[in-house]
Amino acid sequence: MSAPSAEHSATLSPEHAHALAIGLRYGVPESLVTAVRSARDGRGACRAAAVDVRFDLRTVRHAFGREIRDHLCDDLHHLAPDALRRHLPRQVHGAGCLRAGLVVALADYGPTTLVALTPPEALAAGERIQLALRPHADPRYRLDRHRHHWDTRGAAPAARHDPDDITRLQDAGDVRAAWTAAGIAIDGPEAALDRLAAVPVNLPALRSEARRCHPGADTVVFLPGRRLAVVLSGLDGPTVTAIVLPTGRAAGLPVLPEAAWARPVADELVRLGYLRRDAETAVPTRLRVSCGGRAHSVRLENGQWQAADHTPEQIARERALARLGGPLGGCLRVIEERAADVETARDVDRYLQHGRVTDAQAVVTARLGAAVTVESLAPEPFARLREATLRYRLHLAGLPPLVPAPPHTIRPPRKGARHHQVIR
Questions:
Q1: pLDDT single digits (tens) 289-327
Q2: Looking at the domain assignment, is residue 209 inside a domain?
Q3: Is the same domain home to 69 and 105?
Q4: What is the 3-state secondary structure (H, E, C) of the chain?
Q5: Which of the chain's ends, N or C, has fewer CB atoms near its CB within 10 Å?
Q6: Would you place residue 409 in the very low, low, confident or very high pLDDT band (cuts 50, 70, 90)?
Q7: pLDDT for the residue numbered 148
Protein backbone atom coordinates (compact mmCIF):
# COMPACT_ATOMS: atom_id res chain seq x y z
CA MET A 1 0.00 0.00 0.00
CA SER A 2 1.26 3.48 -0.76
CA ALA A 3 2.00 5.95 2.00
CA PRO A 4 -1.07 7.57 3.61
CA SER A 5 -2.20 10.73 1.89
CA ALA A 6 -2.48 12.58 5.20
CA GLU A 7 -0.54 12.17 8.44
CA HIS A 8 -2.93 14.41 10.35
CA SER A 9 -6.68 14.87 10.49
CA ALA A 10 -8.44 17.58 12.46
CA THR A 11 -11.59 15.44 12.56
CA LEU A 12 -10.25 12.00 13.55
CA SER A 13 -7.54 11.47 16.16
CA PRO A 14 -5.09 8.54 15.79
CA GLU A 15 -6.62 6.85 18.85
CA HIS A 16 -10.16 7.09 17.46
CA ALA A 17 -9.05 6.01 13.99
CA HIS A 18 -7.24 2.98 15.41
CA ALA A 19 -10.32 1.91 17.42
CA LEU A 20 -12.62 2.25 14.41
CA ALA A 21 -10.18 0.33 12.20
CA ILE A 22 -10.14 -2.49 14.76
CA GLY A 23 -13.95 -2.51 14.83
CA LEU A 24 -14.20 -2.83 11.05
CA ARG A 25 -11.49 -5.47 10.84
CA TYR A 26 -12.71 -7.73 13.62
CA GLY A 27 -16.40 -6.85 13.45
CA VAL A 28 -16.79 -7.50 9.70
CA PRO A 29 -14.19 -10.19 8.95
CA GLU A 30 -13.64 -12.10 5.73
CA SER A 31 -15.52 -15.22 6.82
CA LEU A 32 -18.64 -13.18 7.63
CA VAL A 33 -18.62 -11.42 4.26
CA THR A 34 -18.08 -14.69 2.39
CA ALA A 35 -20.93 -16.36 4.28
CA VAL A 36 -23.27 -13.46 3.66
CA ARG A 37 -22.57 -13.24 -0.04
CA SER A 38 -23.08 -16.99 -0.46
CA ALA A 39 -26.44 -16.96 1.33
CA ARG A 40 -29.39 -17.55 -0.99
CA ASP A 41 -31.97 -15.53 0.88
CA GLY A 42 -32.29 -12.54 3.16
CA ARG A 43 -32.92 -14.55 6.30
CA GLY A 44 -29.96 -16.81 5.51
CA ALA A 45 -27.76 -13.74 5.08
CA CYS A 46 -29.03 -12.41 8.41
CA ARG A 47 -28.19 -15.66 10.19
CA ALA A 48 -24.68 -15.62 8.70
CA ALA A 49 -24.16 -12.01 9.76
CA ALA A 50 -25.49 -12.44 13.34
CA VAL A 51 -28.64 -10.41 12.64
CA ASP A 52 -31.84 -11.50 14.39
CA VAL A 53 -35.20 -10.80 12.70
CA ARG A 54 -37.68 -9.94 15.45
CA PHE A 55 -40.97 -10.06 13.54
CA ASP A 56 -43.16 -12.59 11.77
CA LEU A 57 -44.32 -11.85 8.23
CA ARG A 58 -47.76 -13.36 8.83
CA THR A 59 -48.26 -10.98 11.75
CA VAL A 60 -47.05 -8.09 9.58
CA ARG A 61 -49.67 -8.91 6.94
CA HIS A 62 -52.41 -9.11 9.55
CA ALA A 63 -51.38 -5.79 11.17
CA PHE A 64 -50.43 -3.68 8.14
CA GLY A 65 -51.74 -5.42 5.04
CA ARG A 66 -50.31 -7.36 2.12
CA GLU A 67 -48.71 -4.37 0.36
CA ILE A 68 -46.49 -3.45 3.29
CA ARG A 69 -45.70 -7.12 3.87
CA ASP A 70 -44.58 -7.44 0.23
CA HIS A 71 -42.42 -4.29 0.44
CA LEU A 72 -40.83 -5.65 3.60
CA CYS A 73 -40.14 -9.03 1.99
CA ASP A 74 -38.52 -7.33 -0.99
CA ASP A 75 -36.28 -5.23 1.26
CA LEU A 76 -35.24 -8.27 3.30
CA HIS A 77 -34.40 -10.12 0.09
CA HIS A 78 -32.00 -7.32 -0.89
CA LEU A 79 -30.62 -6.69 2.58
CA ALA A 80 -26.80 -6.66 2.81
CA PRO A 81 -26.30 -7.20 6.56
CA ASP A 82 -22.52 -7.07 6.24
CA ALA A 83 -22.82 -3.57 4.75
CA LEU A 84 -25.27 -2.61 7.50
CA ARG A 85 -22.82 -3.82 10.15
CA ARG A 86 -20.04 -1.81 8.51
CA HIS A 87 -22.03 1.45 8.52
CA LEU A 88 -23.68 1.40 11.96
CA PRO A 89 -22.13 3.86 14.45
CA ARG A 90 -19.27 2.47 16.53
CA GLN A 91 -17.48 3.43 19.70
CA VAL A 92 -14.34 5.46 19.10
CA HIS A 93 -12.29 3.69 21.75
CA GLY A 94 -11.21 0.18 22.67
CA ALA A 95 -12.16 -2.46 20.12
CA GLY A 96 -14.49 -0.19 18.15
CA CYS A 97 -17.61 -2.14 19.12
CA LEU A 98 -21.06 -1.08 17.97
CA ARG A 99 -22.81 1.60 19.99
CA ALA A 100 -25.47 0.22 22.30
CA GLY A 101 -29.08 1.36 22.28
CA LEU A 102 -29.33 2.38 18.62
CA VAL A 103 -32.69 2.49 16.82
CA VAL A 104 -31.73 3.10 13.18
CA ALA A 105 -34.42 3.46 10.51
CA LEU A 106 -33.78 1.40 7.36
CA ALA A 107 -37.10 1.67 5.49
CA ASP A 108 -40.22 3.72 6.19
CA TYR A 109 -43.52 2.05 5.23
CA GLY A 110 -45.86 4.69 6.63
CA PRO A 111 -47.52 3.16 9.69
CA THR A 112 -44.35 1.25 10.61
CA THR A 113 -40.60 1.42 10.04
CA LEU A 114 -37.98 -1.28 9.57
CA VAL A 115 -35.23 -0.54 12.10
CA ALA A 116 -31.90 -1.97 13.17
CA LEU A 117 -31.51 -2.28 16.95
CA THR A 118 -28.41 -2.74 19.11
CA PRO A 119 -29.74 -3.62 22.58
CA PRO A 120 -26.97 -4.21 25.15
CA GLU A 121 -27.92 -7.86 25.67
CA ALA A 122 -27.59 -8.53 21.94
CA LEU A 123 -24.18 -6.86 21.75
CA ALA A 124 -22.97 -8.81 24.77
CA ALA A 125 -23.91 -12.04 22.97
CA GLY A 126 -21.42 -11.40 20.17
CA GLU A 127 -22.26 -7.99 18.68
CA ARG A 128 -25.61 -9.21 17.40
CA ILE A 129 -27.97 -6.81 15.60
CA GLN A 130 -31.77 -7.01 15.63
CA LEU A 131 -34.22 -6.13 12.86
CA ALA A 132 -37.61 -5.04 14.11
CA LEU A 133 -40.65 -2.93 13.20
CA ARG A 134 -41.21 0.25 15.16
CA PRO A 135 -43.51 3.28 14.69
CA HIS A 136 -40.55 5.65 15.17
CA ALA A 137 -36.75 5.68 15.09
CA ASP A 138 -33.94 7.94 16.25
CA PRO A 139 -33.84 10.82 13.71
CA ARG A 140 -30.07 11.18 14.14
CA TYR A 141 -29.25 7.79 12.60
CA ARG A 142 -31.76 7.32 9.77
CA LEU A 143 -30.58 5.22 6.83
CA ASP A 144 -33.91 5.01 5.00
CA ARG A 145 -32.72 7.69 2.58
CA HIS A 146 -29.23 6.18 2.39
CA ARG A 147 -30.03 2.69 1.21
CA HIS A 148 -26.56 2.12 -0.20
CA HIS A 149 -25.53 1.54 3.43
CA TRP A 150 -27.59 -1.65 3.66
CA ASP A 151 -29.42 -2.41 0.38
CA THR A 152 -27.71 -4.31 -2.45
CA ARG A 153 -29.74 -2.27 -4.97
CA GLY A 154 -28.45 1.06 -3.71
CA ALA A 155 -25.51 3.06 -5.00
CA ALA A 156 -23.65 5.81 -3.20
CA PRO A 157 -24.46 9.27 -4.57
CA ALA A 158 -21.68 11.04 -6.41
CA ALA A 159 -20.17 14.08 -4.77
CA ARG A 160 -20.71 17.41 -6.51
CA HIS A 161 -17.35 18.86 -5.57
CA ASP A 162 -13.75 17.76 -5.79
CA PRO A 163 -13.15 16.90 -2.13
CA ASP A 164 -9.34 17.20 -2.09
CA ASP A 165 -9.08 20.93 -1.42
CA ILE A 166 -11.93 20.82 1.08
CA THR A 167 -10.38 17.90 2.92
CA ARG A 168 -6.98 19.59 3.15
CA LEU A 169 -8.61 22.68 4.62
CA GLN A 170 -10.55 20.55 7.12
CA ASP A 171 -7.38 18.70 8.12
CA ALA A 172 -5.75 22.08 8.75
CA GLY A 173 -8.66 23.06 11.00
CA ASP A 174 -9.66 26.03 8.83
CA VAL A 175 -13.44 25.84 9.19
CA ARG A 176 -14.44 28.99 7.32
CA ALA A 177 -12.21 28.26 4.33
CA ALA A 178 -13.33 24.60 4.12
CA TRP A 179 -17.04 25.45 4.19
CA THR A 180 -16.54 28.29 1.71
CA ALA A 181 -14.75 25.90 -0.64
CA ALA A 182 -17.82 23.65 -0.43
CA GLY A 183 -20.04 26.57 -1.46
CA ILE A 184 -21.57 27.14 1.99
CA ALA A 185 -21.18 30.42 3.89
CA ILE A 186 -20.83 29.67 7.61
CA ASP A 187 -21.14 31.91 10.64
CA GLY A 188 -21.22 31.59 14.38
CA PRO A 189 -19.18 32.33 17.50
CA GLU A 190 -15.47 31.64 17.08
CA ALA A 191 -15.50 29.20 20.01
CA ALA A 192 -18.29 27.19 18.33
CA LEU A 193 -16.43 27.18 15.01
CA ASP A 194 -13.30 25.95 16.77
CA ARG A 195 -15.28 23.01 18.18
CA LEU A 196 -16.80 22.33 14.76
CA ALA A 197 -13.28 21.94 13.33
CA ALA A 198 -13.07 18.49 14.93
CA VAL A 199 -16.40 17.29 13.48
CA PRO A 200 -16.06 15.01 10.39
CA VAL A 201 -18.60 16.81 8.18
CA ASN A 202 -18.86 15.46 4.62
CA LEU A 203 -18.79 18.92 3.10
CA PRO A 204 -18.61 17.96 -0.61
CA ALA A 205 -21.93 16.12 -0.39
CA LEU A 206 -23.63 18.07 2.39
CA ARG A 207 -25.95 20.25 0.27
CA SER A 208 -27.11 17.46 -2.03
CA GLU A 209 -27.64 15.05 0.86
CA ALA A 210 -29.64 17.63 2.83
CA ARG A 211 -31.90 18.22 -0.17
CA ARG A 212 -32.28 14.49 -0.76
CA CYS A 213 -33.18 13.75 2.87
CA HIS A 214 -35.71 16.57 3.22
CA PRO A 215 -36.97 17.45 -0.26
CA GLY A 216 -38.83 20.75 -0.28
CA ALA A 217 -37.41 21.90 3.06
CA ASP A 218 -35.53 25.19 2.92
CA THR A 219 -33.98 24.90 6.41
CA VAL A 220 -32.69 21.83 8.25
CA VAL A 221 -30.40 21.18 11.19
CA PHE A 222 -27.84 18.56 12.09
CA LEU A 223 -26.50 17.84 15.57
CA PRO A 224 -22.80 16.90 15.55
CA GLY A 225 -22.43 16.74 19.32
CA ARG A 226 -20.24 19.06 21.39
CA ARG A 227 -23.50 20.90 22.29
CA LEU A 228 -23.61 22.29 18.76
CA ALA A 229 -26.39 22.58 16.19
CA VAL A 230 -25.62 23.53 12.59
CA VAL A 231 -28.59 25.10 10.78
CA LEU A 232 -28.51 24.98 6.97
CA SER A 233 -30.71 27.54 5.21
CA GLY A 234 -31.45 28.30 1.59
CA LEU A 235 -31.67 24.70 0.41
CA ASP A 236 -34.43 25.68 -2.04
CA GLY A 237 -32.21 28.30 -3.68
CA PRO A 238 -28.75 28.56 -5.20
CA THR A 239 -27.02 29.84 -2.04
CA VAL A 240 -26.79 27.80 1.15
CA THR A 241 -25.75 29.31 4.46
CA ALA A 242 -24.89 27.66 7.75
CA ILE A 243 -24.97 29.05 11.26
CA VAL A 244 -23.61 27.29 14.34
CA LEU A 245 -25.83 27.60 17.40
CA PRO A 246 -26.27 25.99 20.79
CA THR A 247 -28.50 22.93 20.46
CA GLY A 248 -31.41 24.47 22.36
CA ARG A 249 -31.84 27.24 19.78
CA ALA A 250 -32.53 24.91 16.85
CA ALA A 251 -35.51 22.97 18.18
CA GLY A 252 -38.36 22.16 15.82
CA LEU A 253 -36.35 22.05 12.58
CA PRO A 254 -36.12 18.93 10.40
CA VAL A 255 -33.13 16.91 11.63
CA LEU A 256 -30.49 15.71 9.20
CA PRO A 257 -29.37 12.16 10.12
CA GLU A 258 -25.72 11.38 10.69
CA ALA A 259 -25.45 9.38 7.46
CA ALA A 260 -26.27 12.55 5.51
CA TRP A 261 -23.74 14.90 7.06
CA ALA A 262 -20.83 12.75 8.31
CA ARG A 263 -17.92 11.40 6.31
CA PRO A 264 -18.16 7.63 5.79
CA VAL A 265 -15.86 6.18 8.44
CA ALA A 266 -14.34 3.50 6.22
CA ASP A 267 -13.46 6.03 3.52
CA GLU A 268 -11.83 8.30 6.07
CA LEU A 269 -9.77 5.44 7.50
CA VAL A 270 -8.62 4.48 4.00
CA ARG A 271 -7.65 8.07 3.27
CA LEU A 272 -5.57 8.25 6.45
CA GLY A 273 -3.89 4.91 5.78
CA TYR A 274 -5.46 2.88 8.61
CA LEU A 275 -7.35 0.56 6.26
CA ARG A 276 -6.80 -0.93 2.85
CA ARG A 277 -9.49 -0.19 0.27
CA ASP A 278 -10.93 -3.64 -0.33
CA ALA A 279 -14.47 -4.55 -1.36
CA GLU A 280 -14.60 -7.53 0.94
CA THR A 281 -12.58 -6.79 4.03
CA ALA A 282 -10.75 -4.06 5.86
CA VAL A 283 -7.31 -4.65 7.34
CA PRO A 284 -5.33 -2.10 9.37
CA THR A 285 -2.06 -1.28 7.63
CA ARG A 286 -0.81 1.40 10.00
CA LEU A 287 -0.68 1.89 13.75
CA ARG A 288 -0.01 5.17 15.51
CA VAL A 289 1.99 4.64 18.71
CA SER A 290 3.59 6.79 21.36
CA CYS A 291 7.35 6.45 21.13
CA GLY A 292 9.78 8.62 23.07
CA GLY A 293 7.06 11.17 23.77
CA ARG A 294 6.17 11.53 20.09
CA ALA A 295 3.49 10.06 17.82
CA HIS A 296 5.16 7.54 15.48
CA SER A 297 3.84 5.26 12.75
CA VAL A 298 4.24 1.49 12.45
CA ARG A 299 3.23 0.22 9.00
CA LEU A 300 2.58 -3.16 7.45
CA GLU A 301 4.85 -3.53 4.40
CA ASN A 302 5.21 -6.79 2.46
CA GLY A 303 3.70 -8.73 5.34
CA GLN A 304 6.10 -7.31 7.94
CA TRP A 305 5.54 -4.50 10.45
CA GLN A 306 8.11 -1.72 10.04
CA ALA A 307 8.92 1.35 12.15
CA ALA A 308 8.43 4.15 9.65
CA ASP A 309 10.06 6.80 11.84
CA HIS A 310 13.26 4.86 12.64
CA THR A 311 16.18 3.77 10.48
CA PRO A 312 17.15 0.07 10.36
CA GLU A 313 20.32 1.01 12.26
CA GLN A 314 18.31 2.59 15.07
CA ILE A 315 16.09 -0.48 15.36
CA ALA A 316 19.09 -2.83 15.38
CA ARG A 317 20.78 -0.75 18.10
CA GLU A 318 17.59 -0.73 20.19
CA ARG A 319 17.24 -4.51 19.86
CA ALA A 320 20.83 -4.97 21.02
CA LEU A 321 20.28 -2.71 24.03
CA ALA A 322 17.07 -4.59 24.87
CA ARG A 323 19.00 -7.89 24.97
CA LEU A 324 21.22 -6.27 27.58
CA GLY A 325 18.22 -5.31 29.67
CA GLY A 326 17.41 -1.93 28.20
CA PRO A 327 13.82 -0.76 27.62
CA LEU A 328 11.97 -1.15 24.33
CA GLY A 329 10.68 1.99 22.67
CA GLY A 330 7.04 2.22 21.64
CA CYS A 331 7.57 1.30 17.98
CA LEU A 332 9.77 -1.72 18.62
CA ARG A 333 7.53 -2.91 21.45
CA VAL A 334 4.51 -2.95 19.11
CA ILE A 335 6.50 -4.77 16.41
CA GLU A 336 7.70 -7.39 18.90
CA GLU A 337 4.20 -7.88 20.28
CA ARG A 338 2.71 -8.44 16.85
CA ALA A 339 5.36 -11.04 16.11
CA ALA A 340 4.79 -12.96 19.36
CA ASP A 341 1.96 -14.91 20.91
CA VAL A 342 0.72 -11.76 22.61
CA GLU A 343 -0.53 -10.68 19.19
CA THR A 344 -2.47 -13.94 18.87
CA ALA A 345 -4.04 -13.46 22.30
CA ARG A 346 -4.97 -9.89 21.40
CA ASP A 347 -6.51 -10.93 18.08
CA VAL A 348 -8.49 -13.70 19.77
CA ASP A 349 -9.77 -11.32 22.43
CA ARG A 350 -10.89 -8.81 19.79
CA TYR A 351 -12.63 -11.47 17.72
CA LEU A 352 -14.45 -12.68 20.84
CA GLN A 353 -15.53 -9.12 21.67
CA HIS A 354 -17.22 -9.09 18.27
CA GLY A 355 -18.65 -12.60 18.69
CA ARG A 356 -16.45 -14.21 16.02
CA VAL A 357 -15.52 -17.53 17.64
CA THR A 358 -14.89 -19.29 14.32
CA ASP A 359 -12.46 -16.58 13.19
CA ALA A 360 -10.73 -16.61 16.58
CA GLN A 361 -10.21 -20.38 16.33
CA ALA A 362 -8.87 -20.02 12.79
CA VAL A 363 -6.24 -17.56 14.05
CA VAL A 364 -5.26 -19.87 16.90
CA THR A 365 -5.01 -22.90 14.62
CA ALA A 366 -2.93 -21.07 12.02
CA ARG A 367 -0.44 -19.63 14.52
CA LEU A 368 -0.34 -22.13 17.40
CA GLY A 369 -1.55 -25.39 15.90
CA ALA A 370 -4.76 -27.39 15.90
CA ALA A 371 -4.20 -28.70 19.43
CA VAL A 372 -4.78 -25.26 20.95
CA THR A 373 -8.37 -24.04 21.35
CA VAL A 374 -9.84 -20.62 21.86
CA GLU A 375 -11.32 -21.76 25.16
CA SER A 376 -7.90 -22.79 26.49
CA LEU A 377 -6.13 -19.65 25.26
CA ALA A 378 -8.78 -17.14 26.40
CA PRO A 379 -10.94 -18.94 28.97
CA GLU A 380 -12.48 -15.87 30.62
CA PRO A 381 -13.58 -13.96 27.46
CA PHE A 382 -14.83 -17.23 25.96
CA ALA A 383 -16.86 -18.02 29.09
CA ARG A 384 -18.34 -14.50 29.20
CA LEU A 385 -19.39 -14.72 25.56
CA ARG A 386 -20.89 -18.19 26.03
CA GLU A 387 -22.91 -17.14 29.07
CA ALA A 388 -24.09 -13.90 27.42
CA THR A 389 -25.13 -15.85 24.32
CA LEU A 390 -27.11 -18.33 26.42
CA ARG A 391 -28.88 -15.52 28.28
CA TYR A 392 -29.69 -13.79 25.00
CA ARG A 393 -31.11 -16.97 23.45
CA LEU A 394 -33.33 -17.47 26.49
CA HIS A 395 -34.50 -13.87 26.10
CA LEU A 396 -35.35 -14.38 22.41
CA ALA A 397 -37.24 -17.56 23.24
CA GLY A 398 -39.29 -15.77 25.91
CA LEU A 399 -37.90 -17.95 28.69
CA PRO A 400 -36.98 -16.67 32.16
CA PRO A 401 -33.39 -15.50 32.58
CA LEU A 402 -30.70 -17.58 34.17
CA VAL A 403 -30.78 -17.59 37.96
CA PRO A 404 -27.47 -16.34 39.37
CA ALA A 405 -25.38 -19.09 40.88
CA PRO A 406 -25.88 -19.27 44.66
CA PRO A 407 -22.91 -18.64 46.95
CA HIS A 408 -20.66 -21.49 48.01
CA THR A 409 -22.33 -23.79 50.51
CA ILE A 410 -21.06 -26.77 52.46
CA ARG A 411 -22.87 -30.09 52.37
CA PRO A 412 -22.97 -32.24 55.46
CA PRO A 413 -20.45 -35.05 55.02
CA ARG A 414 -21.76 -38.40 53.85
CA LYS A 415 -21.46 -41.22 56.26
CA GLY A 416 -17.96 -42.54 55.96
CA ALA A 417 -16.74 -39.56 53.95
CA ARG A 418 -13.43 -38.09 55.07
CA HIS A 419 -13.88 -34.54 53.74
CA HIS A 420 -16.62 -31.98 53.29
CA GLN A 421 -17.77 -31.37 49.70
CA VAL A 422 -17.98 -27.80 48.48
CA ILE A 423 -20.60 -27.16 45.83
CA ARG A 424 -22.16 -24.14 44.12
A1: 889 888 898 887 776 778 999 999 999 999 899 888 888
A2: yes
A3: yes
A4: CCCCCCCCCCCCCHHHHHHHHHHHHHHCCHHHHHHHHHCCCHHHHHHHCCEEECCCHHHHHHHHCHHHHHHHHHHHHCECHHHHHHHCCECCCCCCCECCCCEEEEEECCCCEEEEECCHHHHHCCCCEEEEEECCCCHHHCCCCCHHHCECCCCCCCCCCCHHHHHHHHHCCCHHHHHHHCCEEEECCHHHHHHHCCCCECHHHHHHHHHHHCCCCCEEEEEEECCEEEEEECCCCCCEEEEEEEHHHHCCCCECCHHHHECCHHHHHHHHCCECCCCCCCCECEEEEEECCEEEEEEEECCEEEECCCCHHHHHHHHHHHHCCCCCCHHHHHHHHHHCHHHHHHHHHHHHHCCCHHHHHHHHHHHHCCCCCHHHHCHHHHHHHHHHHHHHHHHHCCCCCCCCCCCCEECCCCCCCCCCCEEC
A5: C
A6: very low
A7: 85
Residues 174 and 121 in one domain: no
- For 29, the domain range is 14-146
pLDDT digits (tens, 9 = 90+) for 93-106: 888 999 999 999 99
Domains: count for the chain: 3
Q: Are residues 18 and 100 in the same domain?
A: yes
User: Looking at the structure, do residues 202 and 315 belong to the same domain, yes or no?
Assistant: no
Among the candidates 116, 146, 176, a domain finishes at: 146
Domain assignment of residue 72, yes or no: yes
Which of 189, 222, 256 corresponds to the end of one domain? 256
| pLDDT higher than 90, residue 116 | yes
Decide if pLDDT at 282 tops 50.
no
* Residue 194 and residue 294 share a domain: no
User: Which of 151-165, 230-244, 250-264 is least confident?
Assistant: 151-165
Is 357 part of a structural domain of the chain?
Answer: yes
Is residue 80 a part of any domain in this protein? yes
